[in-house]
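User: Quick one: structure for sequence A, then sequence B.

Assistant: Sequence A:
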Amino acid sequence: MHADELKRWRGAERARLIAAREALGSAALEAARERIDRIIEEGFCALSRGVLAFCWPIRGEYDARHLARTLRERGALTALPAIVAKGKPLVFREWHPGVPLAVGPLNIPYPEASPEVLPDHVLLPMNGWDESGYRLGYGAGYFDRTLASLQKKPLVIGVSYEVARMPTIHPQSWDIPMDWVVTERGRYRREGGKLAFAGAAP
């Protein structure tokens, strides 16, 4: 698939998957969020230690703020990504309730002036995910660029829904796969270049 064809195809798939996610409705999304919270809380105990980065949810994405509150109570420091310049890697800035937020691209809030931190773990929302653990995001490449730039790579957990599963996103050389994928069904671990199911939701 040529670059222009891939861009068009990914754009169409992105729109289709976002529409399917939003069509689930608020009650189903909240129920999925609660299951995902339990899966992550019980399956990744190390998230309560160190720096956990997550994303402010938009358009029906998994809302990590509830889990982040629980993990802060257990000792985690939480952070949100911020765009510093177009085409440049993101930075992560400490965030907890009370830290002032500004509004960036896609109307996503970010901490404007809190200290920069390096994440040990990242909860990364996905519009789509494939059988090899690759993520379909919003097309700007910020997270791939950021993960590639970090000297110490964090544990990256992609979070999405079963409805967003795809055979492939046709990954390119710059695409970085998730270490784990979590959906309302359970956990998937990446091993040997493929995702393996590692346990159902409680």
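Sequence B:
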Amino acid sequence: MLCAAAALCCLSSAGALHAQDRGKRVIDDALAALGGDRYLAMQDRVEKGRAYSFYREKLSGLTQAAIYTRYLIRPEPPKTGFFGLREREAFGKTEDAGSVLLTETEGYDVTFRGATPITKERWDRFVDSTKRNIFYILRQRLGEPGMAFFSKGADIWDNQPVDIVDIADAENLSVTVYFNQSTKLPVYQKFRRRDPDTGDRVEEVTMFSKYRDVGHGVHWPFTIHRERDGEKIYEMFSDSVEINKGLTDNLFTLPASTKILKRM
């Protein structure tokens, strides 16, 4: 009996190690497909195109949008809990219809009237979603203590063969990502979070498609589609994506003259 139990334990451990090894290989292949060292050297990114928002599957807004992203220098060796990204979303053809500023510590809705601090719940959701985004994981979180990759095998998703990997970290955040077996690129990810108001579990899904070379051998999806609990909530169709544009702190900092408004 003891021998049988020991054998089962060894088989279980071997299976777990195999799942981790295969999961890490899929991740390594995805990083290489995105550009490898050139992807890791990406300092910033500018995405411009059409953004659509939906409420209960019905179109609730559409606009020209420009999304500016800047990666912060991560500590070496990587540390658990580090968050290193700033983002500015500007709206309108001339980017004068308002913007959303999101940094590693706070966020604001900005209009011609001034800047309104966003709620803590909204900023927390931004950080949580970013930390579980596969592109952020590959750019900023590889090598982080406690980060683990587990292969869930292969399947067919949206008529394409995919490899499925569960990713988990030391803070108990997890995400499941599907990678196209031919291109090695991520095409789908999903995770669950808890709604702070109701306590219910909410499923967040994002799909990526129409990858293009955006320079220096780096590939990026030009179509991004998001769903929440099965309902479409957002789509971005990029007309252009550029990287390493030398974005500075000024773009992600409120001018000293900006009026800070009270949140309604």
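The chain is about 20% helix and 45% strand. Residues 4-11 have pLDDT under 50 and may be disordered.

User: Thanks, that's what I needed.
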